[in-house]
Amino acid sequence: MKQDDTASNLKNNLGKLPPPLFGEDDCDRPACHDMMSQMKKASQASQEKKAVECPPNSGVLGRASWTLLHTMAVWYPDRPTGEDQQHMKSFMSALARFYPCTWCARDFQANLEESPVPTSSRKELCQWMCEQHNLVNEKLGKPVFDCDLKNLDKRWRKNTQDPECKTSGLPH
């Protein structure tokens, strides 16, 4: 079969696929917002002159890690299965073992020994994560967060009061 025939067959078969299970308006998680805009930006950025990409320093890595951890916590199930609980514990254990900042990893390992990851509910995990973040912030001389679940949900899950949060997904 010639290459043109293969491309034509692929194109014809793609037209017969069922539509995606979810439409563009079905994803109300901030992590889903504005995907097309992000894809366009990525395409434009690849066409522009590439900036030097350096490995993240501890500040960049820390902010990205806390964003991931808090977001995972707020989307953790209210009533997790035993498997969910084990996966979360394993994830935290692996993070403490493989975190690229040696001092940070050792500190987190000590925190896990003193205060194991509570995985029986979303509320417990969210508040524990906030408390862990506050321990780090105190050591770094940074402000601490209010660990009330309503505030954590507003910051990391859904902020319906600020229209900017719906479209950008970026911190202010």
Automatic annotation (TrEMBL):
Its EC number(s): 1.8.3.2
InterPro entries noted in UniProt: ALR/ERV, ERV/ALR_sulphydryl_oxid_sf, ERV/ALR_sulphydryl_oxidase
Limits of the ERV/ALR sulfhydryl oxidase domain: 54-156
Keywords: Disulfide bond, FAD, Flavoprotein, Oxidoreductase
GO molecular function, one term: flavin-dependent sulfhydryl oxidase activity
Catalytic reactions on record: 2 R'C(R)SH + O2 = R'C(R)S-S(R)CR' + H2O2
Required cofactor(s): FAD
Gene3D superfamilies, per the entry: ERV/ALR sulfhydryl oxidase domain (1.20.120.310)
EC main group: oxidoreductase
Name assigned to this protein: Sulfhydryl oxidase
Record organism: Fistulifera solaris
Organism lineage string: Eukaryota, Sar, Stramenopiles, Ochrophyta, Bacillariophyta
